[in-house]
Amino acid sequence: MTTYQPDPQTVATQTLASNELVDELLEETTEIDYVEVIQTVISSMAQEDSAMVSQTEAGQIWKFKYGTVEVFVHLTGSTDNDSLTVWSSVLKLPAKNEPQLMRKLLEMNGAETFEARFAIVNEQVVVITSRTVAELSPGEVSRAITIVATIADNNDESLQEQFGQ
């Protein structure tokens, strides 16, 4: 069995590029505009014309294409009690050999997903990260989006090939 190890250099380089864009936003103000930070990060990562945003009662949701996956970013608001969630689907369920799939995902969660994790949401395996907005820095927003997008894009095709129906 071959396991995938994400390239920390790739994740670090993409995060650094996004962080540089985000740092420019901070030079003018000390209050963080999370919407502007998210839009800046997405514009640096999204494939042409793939980024969309919608406003709901539950906050704002962005969707963009990164490599072979769609990435979603949900911001419920800007108070300390609000949250930022980033996720991307990598495999629809049911899957072939689910016990082996679950073991593989748990092993990857332990060693390869940084602040993100694999989870099951709405009958899909997703890469996801979530946290409150309290003391959330622009760099952390950038890193969360970059990590989820990179891990999902690096693993979706191999998971679908090995475990897809």
From TrEMBL:
InterPro entries: Put_sensory_transdc_reg_YbjN
Domain of life: Bacteria
Pfam families assigned to the protein according to its UniProt record, in alphabetical order: YbjN (PF10722)
Name of the protein described by the UniProt record: YbjN domain-containing protein
